[in-house]
Amino acid sequence: MAQDTDDINLTPQELQTLSELDSRQFGFLKLNSPEQTKKKALVVRAIKYLERMLVQAQAEKQRRKADNTKACLDDKENEDEAKGISIDPKTYCKLGHFHLLLEDYSKAMSAYQKFYSLKGDYWKDASFLYGLGLVYFHFNAFQW
User: Fold this and answer.
1) Of 142, 135, 57, nearest to 98 (Cα)?
2) pLDDT score of 84
3) CB-based contacts of 81: which residues, under 8 Å, 6+ apart?
4) pLDDT on residue 2
5) CA-to-CA distance for 56 and 123, rounded, in angstroms?
6) Which of 71, 73, 115, 127 is deepest in the core (most CB within 10 A)?
7) Domains of the chain from N-terminus onward
8) For residues 64 and 105, is the Cβ–Cβ distance under 8 A?
9) How many other CB atoms sit within 10 Å of the CB of residue 130?
10) Nearest residue to 100 (alpha-carbon basis) of 140, 127, 119
């Protein structure tokens, strides 16, 4: 699995382009149009990279948990080591933005919900709230 992640390399310019993308470009940046094929390919590569990274982190967390269970060690050091892998909640938010821009609403909703559950002060992130609102609007999941 580590080999798959190494296959995706992003240049600093591509990372800069990706960092500027969020839910506020929805409706203005049409990634499904023929003019935006390069940017769409970049976003798809970024999604693949982020998803692989999240899968690897989850697998590593489960492996460490299984190792700790087998060893039956209650040392404080082992507990801290098991919590060593930590994914920044903003990763899920960015993943939600990318899926929203690709108009993959169900995956965007999933990523936004994960961010919502992990981030205590989610209401301070305007682009998250806007993206989540757009996804809710798409699914008619809002109340007046």
Assistant:
1) 135
2) 57
3) 64
4) 46
5) 29
6) 115
7) 34-71+85-139 (1.25.40)
8) no
9) 16
10) 127
What does pTM read for this prediction?
0.82
CA dihedral 104, 106, 108, 110 (to 10 degrees): -150
The token pair that represents 42 in the structure block:
């970049």
How far, in Å, CA of 30 to CA of 102, rounded? 8
Please state, in angstroms and as integers, the Cα–Cα distance from residue 65 to each residue in 13, 77, 88, following that order.
Answer: 38, 13, 20
Conformational region of residue 140, where left means phi above 0, alpha means psi within -120 to 50, and beta covers everything else: left
Residues in Cβ contact with 67 at an 8 Å cutoff, skipping those fewer than 6 apart:
none
| Cα–Cα dist 76/99, whole Å | 39
Per residue, the 3-state secondary structure of 107-119, as one string, reads HHHHHHHHHHHHC
Give the Cα-Cα-Cα angle 112, 114, 118 (nearest 5 degrees). 115
Average pLDDT across each block of 10 residues of the chain; the chain has 144 residues. List them in order.
60 94 94 94 95 92 84 53 73 97 97 96 95 95 73
pLDDT at residue 142, as a whole number: 74
pLDDT number for residue 1: 43
Asked whether 135 and 100 are in contact (CB, 8 A), the reply is yes
